[in-house]
Every structure is written in structure tokens, then in C-alpha cells.
Amino acid sequence: MRRRLIAAAVLVAAGIAGVLPAVADVAQPTVVTADPVDFTPHALDGTVRAIAVVGRTVVVGGTFTSVADEGTMRPPQRRPYLFAFDAKTGVVRGSFAPRVDGAVYALAAGPDNTVYVGGAFRTVNGASSRGLTRLSVSTGARVRGFSAEINWGDVRTLAVNGKRLYAGGPFSAINGVARAGLARLDGGTGAVDAGFDAKLTAKNMARVRVEDMALSPDGRRLVAVGALTHAGGQPRYQLAMLDVAGPKAVVANWHTDAFRSPCDQSLDTYLRGVDFAPDGSYFVTVTTGALTGPGRMCDGAARFESAGAGAHKPTWVNQTGGNTLFSVSVTGVAVYVGGHQQWLDNPYGKKTKGKGAVDRPGIGAINPKTGKALPWNPTRSRGVGARAIVATSYGLYVGSDTDKLGKEYHGRIGMFPLP
Q1: Quick one: which of 174, 209, 223, 354 has the fewest CB in 10 Å?
Q2: What average pLDDT score do residues 184-200 get?
Q3: 360 contact partners, CB below 8 Å, separation of at least 6
Q4: Burial status of residue 75 (CB atoms within 10 A of its CB: 0-12, 13-18, 19 or more)
Q5: How many structural domains comprise the chain?
Q6: CB distance 241 to 222 below 8 Å
């Protein structure tokens, strides 16, 4: 194993103070190495579900309860659902120990060294704050003036563009304002944007549920995926693209019927993740679904071009052969996918290695142009799956529910650096 040090210069995120640009994964010049750095800390139980980088601090959320620094004699520290560490040294930040009483599913960097937190919690630091809060990264305290609560359910995905905060999940109201599955808030106060309502509906389903969303790098378009059948009264099965540059949520003249194709009939949605390319020209979705075979959208990754009007078909689809993909990060040179897959390039497999399949246990990379697996194959102990993949200017963070990454011990989180 080789220990790599990260130059501090690349760890300082632009826009840490004041207004943030639209959140998007960082363009990288090459594929990351297959050898994770040795200094990241370890979550000792549960699952890492979300990762956000705020300046030189990495904030981690999930269902874990305790964490430990790498390579020290310090005892494990109790950190239910949320902790932070120094991106350069890996040392867990002792000053960041907010008290949340439920799982954290979503994180987004905020202005002025803060982080937005979404999940299934009801209280934060002893105060009512159901599903959503904003915290100081320095102290873990709730940010004064920000107040937002969902009515029930949880918050599963967050995105920030300037002073606008987007939240998605299975909720039906925030701050008493009806919003089915998706809302836009004032990032400073938490107030619901009264003019912005995507009017998502889910015909013949129990409820609307946004599983994930992605903002284009310019902040003008948002793609939401999950249990939905209509947006603004227009048919949009499992995926809706919205024009969000103005005061209202305008359903874009962009749609796809790709996800009308059947997968496991017990699922109200089989979409699990989505991410825009750094240049905004395309986005990639990942799915579960159980049914396999050429032409299906189940258990795979798919690229869609974001330009143009009307109906769109996927540019390519890469199937696992029957294993779920949960997370995706597009960096321009690679599409990183995580789940509990065993293979990629496997349209003919049925929980088996079919013709042409390549081994990519737990994590893999896809060529964004051809849709075929890249040689990168660090491996990960599969478990339920990798729930969080986040690209930065210096590497790729991966969060999951297992403790082997790149054939080394890494408790539920690790980072692959750029060469």
C-alpha cells in the first residue's frame, strides 16, 4: 500500500463563503487510481448514505453510530448518523458532533462553512427539526434563522444553487406548505418558495417519492427520479426534467418512455440515482429491478443527452445482469457506479456472468462515450451496496455498508485519489 498526501491547495473549495454555484460533480482529468488513500477514518457499523465536502472538511451521514480514526490508539467515538473529518489528515473533527435522532440520507454543502442535512430524524441538538436542518461545520450547531420541517417521511436528496435549496423525498409538505416529493426553499431561512411547485403526482401509487435528483452545472435544469407518473399534469414516468432558472417549476419539453418498460412489479420505482456530466450535456441514471435481458432498463446505468426537445432514448445502457446499482458520479472521463453488482457489460446474465461480462464487484467505471466498462476495477466487498459516490478535484469518495475497498480495510468510507 502507498500512502498519498493530498495537497492542501486542491482541498479548498471555491465559494465556501457567500453564495454557492450549482452543485455538480467535479470534472476530472483522468480516472482515479485503484488504490484508496490510507488515512480516511472508519464508520464501525451501519451504512454511509451521504457525503459532502465543505472546504477542507468531509461531512458524512448515514445509519452508523460510532467512528474511529485510522492508525491511532484513540478509542472509537460515538457519532450517531453524522460525523466529519479533515480531508487532508482523515482525523475525525471533535468539534462537529451534532445530535440527530435518526438516519441521515442527504447532505449538501452550504455557504459560510455550513452543511444542509436531510434524513429521517425528528430533532437536531434537542430542537424540533424534522427531516431537514442546516449546521455549522465548525461547531455542529444549528444555523440561526434557518427553519424547515417536513410533515412526515424523510428527505432523501438535496441540491444547492446559489440561495436556492432543493429537497426531495416521500414527504407531502414542508413548513405546512403542500409539496409532493419536491420543494425549493430559501437557503437562508428555510422558507418554501411559494411560486415553485413541480406538481408531481404518482397515479396508482401510494405516494410520490423522489429518490434522487441532479442539477445541471448552470443550475437551470433539474432532473428528478423516483415514484412519479406526472409533472405539472404531463406524463413523466419515473423521471422528470424541469426548467428551474425562473420563479416557477416549468416542465421541460424533454421526456423519455424508457422507464415505462417493466422491471420487478413490486417496485413503484426502480430508479435509484442520477447525475449530470460536468458540462451539462448529458446525465446518467442507475437502477434496480431484478429483470434482465437486452433492451431492459433494470439493474443498470443509462446515459441520456440533455439537449433537444421531445422524446429521448438512452444513448447507451450498461447492465449488471440482475444486481442493483444505487449511486452514480459523472466526471467527464468516467461514469462511476456503485451498488451490489458483480459485473458490468452483462445484458445476457441472470445473476450469472453472461457473454461479454466483466467482473466489477461493488464498484466500477464506465466509458461515458461508449457505455462499456473501463479497466478500473479496485473491487469492494459488496454487501447491500455503495450508496454514496462523490467526485472532487482530488479524488473520489465512496460510502457503503462494508469494510473492504480496494482489497484493504476501509470502514464504510474511503477515497480513491487522482494519480
Answers
A1: 354
A2: 98
A3: 341, 342, 343, 344, 373, 377
A4: exposed
A5: 1
A6: yes
Question: What is the CATH number for 246?
Answer: 2.130.10.10
Among residues 111, 116, 56, the alpha carbon closest in space to that of 82 is found at 116
pLDDT at residue 75 above 80? yes
Q: Span 180-193, mean pLDDT? A: 98
d(CA 203, CA 191): 28
pLDDT of residue 20: 43
Tell me whether residue 8 is in a domain: no
In this predicted structure, the answer to whether residue 25 has a pLDDT above a threshold of 90 is no
Predicted structure pTM score? 0.94
Burial bucket for residue 246 (CB in 10 Å: 0-12, 13-18, 19+): exposed
User: Does residue 44 form part of some domain?
Assistant: yes
Question: Is 123 inside a domain boundary?
Answer: yes
Instruction: Answer yes or no: is 2 within a domain.
Output: no
Q: What is the mean pLDDT of residues 266-288?
A: 97
Q: How many CB atoms lie within 10 A of CB 18?
A: 9
Cβ-based neighbour number of residue 234 at 10 Å: 12
Sort strands 114-119 and 132-136 into parallel, antiparallel or unpaired: antiparallel
Q: Are 416 and 35 in contact (CB under 8 A)?
A: yes
